[in-house]
Amino acid sequence: MLGADEYEFPFFLQPQKLPSVPFMVVDPRDLPDEWQEAFERFLIGVAVPHPIYVYQHDYERFCLLVKQGEILI
After folding, report:
1. Shortest CA distance to 10 belongs to which of 71, 62, 70, 54?
2. What's the superkingdom here (predicted)?
3. How many domains does the chain fold into?
4. What is the pLDDT along the chain (73 residues), one digit of tens a residue?
5. Does residue 65 sit within a domain?
6. What is the pTM of this model?
7. Does some domain include residue 59?
8. How far apart are CA 15 and CA 73, in angstroms?
9. How many CA atoms within 13 Å lie on the side-chain side of 55?
10. Residue span of the structural domain in which 70 resides
11. What DSSP string describes 7-71?
């Protein structure tokens, strides 16, 4: 497993606004494979606004948990 300090972290995902979505969203498809898999596991049971995009605040929470060592990649 790689620690957060072994990557340029956090990976910046460009926030964007979708019509009829109250919060900013990001596209997690730009994450490296290991990070994308961990993020998908993190999102289990979380409401998402779109088949591709996820809420920016969910990604920020994921990044915080990785930094704190709560999620290992």
Report:
1. 62
2. Bacteria
3. 1
4. 445 455 555 678 999 999 998 999 999 998 999 999 999 999 998 888 788 899 999 999 999 999 999 999 8
5. yes
6. 0.81
7. yes
8. 23
9. 13
10. 1-8+26-36+49-73
11. SSSSPP---B--TT-SS-EE-GGGS-HHHHHHHHHHTTT---SSSS-EEHHHHHHHHHHHHTTSS
